[in-house]
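Mods, move this if it's the wrong board.
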Amino acid sequence: MLREVFEYEYDEIAAILKLSQPNCRQILRRARQHVAEVRPRFDAPIEKREKLLHAFVDAATTGDPARLVALLSDSVVLHSDGGGKAPELPNAIYGPMNVARAILGSVSRFVPANLSRRMALVNGQPGVVTWHEARPFAVFTLDEEEGLIRNIYVITNPDKLALLERGGQPPA
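Not the wrong board. Structure tokens:
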């Protein structure tokens, strides 16, 4: 992060971490490689991802755990980001049964009844923006692998959602 986000030079990073510059370069190379391995190799066509997203939303909102689990890969991971200011899961959730329980439990505990949602492109991929009382409540999207959901990303962090307030409108 020091290099990629904060644009520190390798000599500065080495001094901070008390490591050699070559070691810092190697750590960054390995981190980039790890991130590349975790991402799906090929993106599914957008229509296929939209269909999977609609099926996911339907299964989650109707509270059908069997349908929800059927959409999830064995290696599914649920990630959430509330920034410590909004509902979130403190850690990533792994596995189809755990993810389904977390989603259905979160929907019943944290999602307001009068929530509205709109399909939207999120970072160029199909996603859902939910609104509560004309304010963005959450954004979620997913990664697909071989027709199943591999990763689910939920953002409830109000600092990040504030960008939507300035540029988006809730559904009518």
